[in-house]
Amino acid sequence: MDLGRLRSDMSLNFFLLILIQGFVLMFPVDVQAKKENLVYFPNTPYELNIYKIYGKKPGKTLMLIGGIQGNEPGGFLSADLYADMSLLKGNLIVVPRANFYSILLNQRGHHGDMNRKFAKRPEKMSMDDKIVSILKELIAESDYLLNLHDGSGYYYPKYISRWQNPRAFGQSIIADCEEYKIPSQNKVLKLGDMAREVMKEINQEITNELHKFHFNNTRTDEPNSIHREQLKSATYYALTKHHIPAFGIETSKFLPSIDLKVRYHNLVINAFMKLFDIMPEQPGLFLDPPELKYLVVSINGQTPIVIKDKQPMNIMAGDTINIAHIEANYERGLSVDILGYGSLNDFRKDSSIYKNTSLIIRKDNKVFAQIPIRVSEDKTASIRSHRKKTVSHFIIEVNGRKQLIKSGETLEIVRGDILKIINILPESLSKQQGLIVNFKGFVGNWKNNTGEDRGYLIDTVSDLLERYSIHGKRKIYKIVVSHGKRILGKTLVKIAEPSFEYIIIKLNNQTYALKNRATVCASLNDYLTVEAVKSNFGKENEISIRANGVFLIPGRAKRIRDLTGTEVTTLRIDLTRGELFIGEVYIKIG
Fold first, then answer.
1. Is residue 260 part of a domain?
2. How far apart are CA 75 and CA 55, in angstroms?
3. Is the peptide bond before 73 cis (omega within 30 degrees of 0)?
């Protein structure tokens, strides 16, 4: 085999794939580049943006984490400012909104405290766990860590009052110990001295004595510590696993304004950057209130239109809208929520609308614009449908997204999709007594099977009976609407098996687009990075990728030697969707 030609052909296929499919990929930028933005779980309530900023001169790397607890805006708004910074020396890794889901809800942690999930890796990974796993990889790339928070009360070493005492957190720089001796090294990290040097500088800028910062040594490892929960925190993980100085920065939730919280965070961050010899080229500060200029919206896939704040959007029942762009005076932290439909973030998603509602735009957890959606019925079609007493459309939810399927048409899905029959149109017919909407091959209630299947979640892997499929091959099923013996409408559900078209992998600096069962060559010392996967079900975050049983997360490099050992000659990479196997590729080691 001509390996050079194979690589050339694969590279060509890869670029054709980008042009033809519009498949957006993110490639790590060389260290010489000034800025890099990585996006995980895009256009979802879990969207995770990471900004890597490289200085003109080499130096140490400081990581900033904001918003790991969603109701602490001082931290994530401050971190957000550093995503636009230019550096003369050193590097920054900025994660402004680690827990975007909880930020949208203005909650500490909707799925539990994310800052208590660093101790161990669970067998079954939740979305929080996946985000924490990414944060751990970023910590491994860093020389220092600052985790930005807003805390209760005002920390003080001695008890002064209910809100000013050793158990409070606000206005403190937190470390897990005074000094940390790195195991097997003759090196000690003097965390207390670092914090006091920073406080000496910043407290000169703070005139209110109550607002001055104090060093809070949680003594996390000591048996009598009152903060043993910090054993599960990001700072403790960074200190004990990667042996880097790590601090929690807490401004007080009792401060009178967001601006003041952000200002204090900035003072602390800037002082630590100075201490770590990370030199900014141009700082930025932008705290204007968010303002919507316009939305770009497509209705039923037609030419997009422009909608401004408070301008009503008039559509017909069943129309599908897609918000393609938000033009505002901010770029980050924006989300769109169509009330009563989809999820907390419906940006760039198709949503079929049937009743009057509103579309709200948030900056983090603050609603700053609202657009009413007015739905009109097609009266002529409604009268005609009622006269004929037949079904015009089915409203079916696929993986949480509602679709409008015309009676007699075929809904095409992929094995592993979750269905729910919401209703039928017209609504006047759907309420008729004795009407049954039956998914042939599914039983919603085994104890009392009436045949009525609206409202049930239907797992296309485990819930369907093969003998009721057309031709008995589990590929095509019928949904039938009946009233007594009369059939009023039907549609087909065609189920394709999940598969992938390409997996995009990077071996050191060479990128390949591999089809199922393809093979590429590498050495034990090469680094493997999964860039992306193109599948027939279009949900990359549903695909599990394992190499020798080890999960591979897109965008994170793994050395092949660490995956195989030294005696394996071929590394097999398996791709699955849930329990369904969808393909494999191979890396031949030579």
1. yes
2. 23
3. no
Average pLDDT of the segment spanning 102-130? 92
Give me the mean pLDDT over the 133-138 stretch.
Answer: 96
How long a stretch of residues is the chain?
A: 590
Domain interval for residue 242: 44-282
Note whether 334 and 419 are same-domain residues.
no
Take residue 459 and report the two structure tokens written for it. 């797992």
Is residue 561 one of the residues assigned to a domain?
yes
CA neighbor of 576 nearest in space, from 416, 398, 399, 413: 416
259-307: pLDDT as tens digits? 999 999 999 999 999 999 999 985 444 567 899 988 989 888 787 888 9
Q: Cα separations (Å) of 117 from 120, 157, 186, 288?
A: 7, 28, 30, 34
- DSSP for residue 28: P
Q: H/E element holding 117?
A: none
Q: Which pairing describes strands 418-425 and 351-352: parallel, antiparallel, or unpaired?
A: unpaired
Pick from 85, 179, 86, 145: which is nearest to 276 by CA?
145
Cα 510 to Cα 22, 68, 426, 446: the distances in Å are: 21, 34, 55, 54
Give this prediction's pTM.
Answer: 0.57
369: pLDDT strictly greater than 70: yes
- Amino acid sitting at position 214: H
Residue 116 has pLDDT above 90, yes or no: yes
Crossing angle of the two packed helices 191-202 and 258-275, in degrees rounded to 10: 120
pLDDT at residue 540 in the model: 60
Helix, strand, coil shares, percent, the chain, to 5: 20, 40, 40
The torsion angles phi and psi of 202, rounded to 5 degrees, stand at -75, -30
Q: Residue 84 sits in a domain of what CATH number?
A: 3.40.630.10
Residue 35 exposed, middle or buried by CB count within 10 Å (0-12, 13-18, 19+) = middle
